[in-house]
Amino acid sequence: MSNRPLAAAGRLVPLLRAGLIAGIVVAAVAYPVAAATGLGAKVTAHAMEHKTQILTTALPAETSYVYAPDGKTVLTMFYEEYRQYTKLADISPNMQQAIVAAEDNRFYQHRGVDPKGVARAFVANARSSGVSQGASTLTMQYVRMALRDSAKTPKEVQEATQQTSLRKVREMRMAMDLEKELSKDEILERYLNSAYFGHRAYGIYAASEIFFSKAPKDLSPVEAATLAGLVKSPSEYDPASSDQKDATGRRNYVLDRMTQLGYLSPDAVRQAKTEPIRLKLTYPPNDCASVPEKWNSWGFACDYLKNWWSAQPAFGENRLERMDKLRRGGYRIVLSLDPKIQEAAEQNVGTKENTGSPFANGIVVSEPGTGRVKAMAVNRTYSLDLSENGLSSNPEAGPKVKANFPNTVAPLLGGGDLPGYQAGSTFKMFPMLAALDAGMPLSTSFNAPHRYRSEVYDGWSPSNASGAMSGNQTMWSGFGKSVNTYFVWLEEQVGADKAVRLAEQLGLRWRTDVDREHASPAKAKQWGAFTLGVSDATPLEMANAYAAIAADGRYCEAIPVQAIYNRDGTPTTWKTASGIEREVAKPRCRQVVDADAARAATDAARCPTGDTPARGSCGGWSTADSVRGTVGRPVAGKTGTTDSTRSAWFVGYTPELAAASFISDPDNPFNAVGDGQSQIPIKAVAQTLHDGLKGQPTRQFTPPSDRIVG
């Protein structure tokens, strides 16, 4: 008897078994539909329908861009997944064809699930006793990515990605439902914008830029095949690795598939496969530390933007949600800084020359009537690298604590969590403004002694800086000469608590335990030293507070942007507590003091600068009489120094701009800057106002009325 029939039968068994399995699997592909209408469907159908509806509208996370005021110059980006959504019309047909060839060659034939692909994968996997082929279509892959990207909890992320049969069935069902709602082109577009290509490149725009430094519409067949080959395993086929063997092999596989599908001719593929993979890598900036070197000082404004953003209810209920929106929301953010004024500010605080000083000299410029920040500069380099910094000047800081110079990212200018610096006599503005707003005239006089004993403040006895300040003073002369005893007396008349509350309305915040205690309702009435500037403040706060006076008492919240746009190009809006919809980037202003009172305060504030008030007399001399000559136009302001000149300030303003400058040691507030450096902030503000307003028409301050002059 011959053994030939038995041998033939032995060869036939595996084939019959494979065919039987394939038949079973093909029939089983219908299971997702059946399951959806079976026992489990009654429980999950509504949820499945809801998720499918979400997928038709959900968009993947997208990079937010920060622009200079021209709206074109990119300063930096914020992202967790570097991605910019790109329409299919702006993606090369080469790329569209390559991804179909690489991931789903029957994409245009199936309706979300490919029965032949499932059967083929099942048989291949059965033969290999493992997973040698997948069966996910492009639509199914997109469903998985979209569910992952739209997940709000770790559990939802796990449900979207876990390797279970239930997840696969749900994915199939949703893929078929999705194909009823979206066209093939819409699905392909979303897929290409969701896929991960490695090197933090999410979506085809990022992949094109990172690997080839070009737009998706310009990808060649070879480049498209290279990128399409990455999706299966971005790390294994990474062409930026030292060995491109695997990446080249995968690229060539995709090119062959493109030929089989009729996308490329055999001759074109043969030629393409001889070419090496030529990369032109780009590393996109991320966060404020990536601001280009030529714009380095703008890093402090960028950092302020982050802190401001994290406090805006328009972007979420808490800081975590708001920062997540910044990194995933695809916003277009245009900063409010004015390049001309910013350059002037940088030059006048020596951002390039004086970074090695322990004393920080900074300046902030604000726009009256809008609150928009026009300049932020300090004599420091914005950098996370502290390796070349010396040790802190604070003896209590510890033996290994680094100083804040020359490099730092600390918010030395305000807008962060640092308390700031004692602002000295610049605080005299607040009791004077409170007194004027209460109806006291500018001519209110007091024979100010060199030392004054306050019965209101439990016998506290402050004195003046000089005996020449003694004598009869008004608000004009008292402010111009910075007469301590006059302002302690004036504060008594109006109430220290009124001055404190007004300062709060003008944007000041109390960041130390001592300041919070003194500013509390229970103790504010006794805070006599408030008028002498013993509280900490930041340049950002002081510039904005004085800007409100320049704007006739209309206070506007400090804001670092001039525009914010959603990913679709529309202005970003939010609803206030009263239900009014407003643009997030629009100024938020309110009248804090009477306009006439603010004009009167400005008239008195012209005295310290050497300017001539409209209605009164400055008393013969002032503390910063060089300012008017430098600025070259009407200007008001106030000097401020603390005990032993540990810090020195000047806040000045014109009708167009308000600027606050300080000099102090941020590491050690007891490290006195000395009298010799007290002129530095005065010069910085005066010269910045001059340079920033050069070429603009001269505007006059509005004089106060007879009623408030007295």
TrEMBL record:
The chain crosses the membrane at residues 12-34. Residues 74-258 form the Glycosyl transferase family domain. It catalyses: [GlcNAc-(1->4)-Mur2Ac(oyl-L-Ala-gamma-D-Glu-L-Lys-D-Ala-D-Ala)](n)-di-trans,octa-cis-undecaprenyl diphosphate + beta-D-GlcNAc-(1->4)-Mur2Ac(oyl-L-Ala-gamma-D-Glu-L-Lys-D-Ala-D-Ala)-di-trans,octa-cis-undecaprenyl diphosphate = [GlcNAc-(1->4)-Mur2Ac(oyl-L-Ala-gamma-D-Glu-L-Lys-D-Ala-D-Ala)](n+1)-di-trans,octa-cis-undecaprenyl diphosphate + di-trans,octa-cis-undecaprenyl diphosphate + H(+); Preferential cleavage: (Ac)2-L-Lys-D-Ala-|-D-Ala. Also transpeptidation of peptidyl-alanyl moieties that are N-acyl substituents of D-alanine. Residues 363-667 form the Penicillin-binding protein transpeptidase domain. Keywords: Carboxypeptidase, Glycosyltransferase, Hydrolase, Membrane, Multifunctional enzyme, Protease, Transferase, Transmembrane, Transmembrane helix. Gene3D superfamilies: Biosynthetic peptidoglycan transglycosylase-like, DD-peptidase/beta-lactamase superfamily. PANTHER family: BINDING PROTEIN TRANSPEPTIDASE, PUTATIVE-RELATED (PTHR32282), PEPTIDOGLYCAN GLYCOSYLTRANSFERASE (PTHR32282:SF33). This is Transglycosylase domain-containing protein. It comes from Micromonospora reichwaldensis.
